[in-house]
Amino acid sequence: MRIFITGVSSGIGRELARVLVAAGREVRGVARRADAMASLAAEIGSPAFAYDVCDIADPASMATLSQAMKRQDYVPDVVILNAAVDLDDEYPGLDFGQSCQMMRTNVDGAYFWVAAFIEAFVERNAGQFVAVSSIFAHWPDRNSVSYSGSKAGLSMLMRGLRIRYAATRLQFKLLYLGPVDTPINPRFSAQEPSGSAIVASATGTAEFIVRMLGSNRRNFYFPFYIFLVFTFLRWLPDTWFEFLTSPFKR
Fold it and tell me: β-pairing, 171-177 with 128-134?
């Protein structure tokens, strides 16, 4: 199985690459930081892992890589849309530049790779797109209102694709994450490397995503309590959600 992953230089993406190669999968990852990916390649120590330097927020960078992949006849079986940034909006003001960066990375960067591979997937009538979303796709976050907006946009993109390609065997999977202790989102701390009941670890999250690949479900929640939150507390007002989650933020 060929798996293409965005954002493999740190956090969940890095752990995903490591876990998938260990499970016998062929992984190709992209990220901006060549040094971090070279370090990961050395750690994995397997030809089953390859990487490309690519800025997910830069359409020209992605287009260059996409064209190279077409020349190589590279088409993955699974595309994991993991790359994301979570930047504060400079409360109590707003930073338009920060907002644009999040939208370009979290939404446009995912949309580009869906568009890049969708025709090949439709032609062979097989393939998975896995989008890493967030509980903040449903409830806003006062520290980063644009992050919530970007994850809501990503989630709606996947839901729309499900309808558009309902007559095919393509799969569009959504993972709604609760707090995860990663460098991308330094506001949450798991306290323990293995994670906690409230804040998940990057390794635990990566292992869950690997299990997702073998499932026919469309929506996933991690840790488990996030499923309960979505199922029973969708009515929860935004202010209550902010109050309840603030103790877990750094």
Answer: parallel
Q: CB count, 10 Å around CB of 225?
A: 12
Residue 248 above 90 pLDDT? no
| Alpha carbons 89 and 140: distance in angstroms, whole number | 13
Amino acid letter, residue 115: A
Is 1 in contact with 19 (CB distance < 8 Å)? Answer: no
Give the other-Cβ count within 10 Å of 187's Cβ.
15
* Cβ partners under 8 Å of residue 197, min gap 6: 223, 225
Tens digits of residue pLDDT in 15-49? 999 999 999 999 999 999 999 999 999 999 999 99
Q: How many CB atoms lie within 10 A of CB 128?
A: 19
The percentage of the chain sitting over the pLDDT mark of 90, rounded to a whole number, equals 68
How far is it, in rounded angstroms, from Cα 22 to Cα 35? 22
Distance CA 112, CA 171 (A): 17
For 201, the 3-state DSSP assignment is strand
**CA nearest 133: which of 169, 77, 80?**
80
Phi-psi group of 230: left, alpha or beta (phi > 0 → left; psi -120 to 50 → alpha; rest → beta): alpha
Q: Tokens 């990057």: give the residue.
A: 202
Helix, strand or coil, per DSSP, at residue 186: coil
b/e map 75-105, b = 16+ CB within 10 Å: bbbbbbbbbbbbbebeeeeeeeebbebbbbb
Burial label, 243 (beta-carbon count in 10 A; 0-12, 13-18, 19+): exposed
Q: Is 1 helix (H, G, I), strand (E, B) or coil?
A: coil
pTM of the entire predicted model: 0.90
Sign of CA dihedral 163, 124, 221, 18: negative
